[in-house]
Description:
By secondary structure, the chain is of the alpha+beta class. The protein has a single domain (2-89), classed as Hypothetical Protein Tm841, Chain: A,domain 3 (2-Layer Sandwich). Helix content is 37%, strand content 21%. It is built from 3 helices and 5 strands. It has helices spanning 18-32, 49-62, 75-81; strands spanning 2-3, 9-10, 40-45, 67-72, 86-89. The longest helix has 15 residues, at 18-32. It is globular, with a radius of gyration of 13 Å.
Amino acid sequence: xxxxxxxxxxxxxxxxxxKRSLTTLGDKMLAALPSDPQQPIxxxxxxxxxxxxxxxxxxxxxxxxxxxxxxxxxxxxxxHTGFGCVAAFVMGTDKRQ
Length: 97
């Protein structure tokens, strides 16, 4: 998922399999780092810290100086996603349309 300039969610792509989805999430975060290598990457989860830490470790393995934080998704979103949601937030490199 992605967010446009008006704050609306949009589908950015679909990936099958949990491991591949976590790797893709990490790759998308790494793609944004060239614009500002010290910008914060926030990884949030609705309880699956093992998966969230996998994404964090994946990012840090490829960019050891990355500023990565793992935390909780808010209760409102977690009530809709259920256990296991992993999301990552970073400022993108592309101009939003």
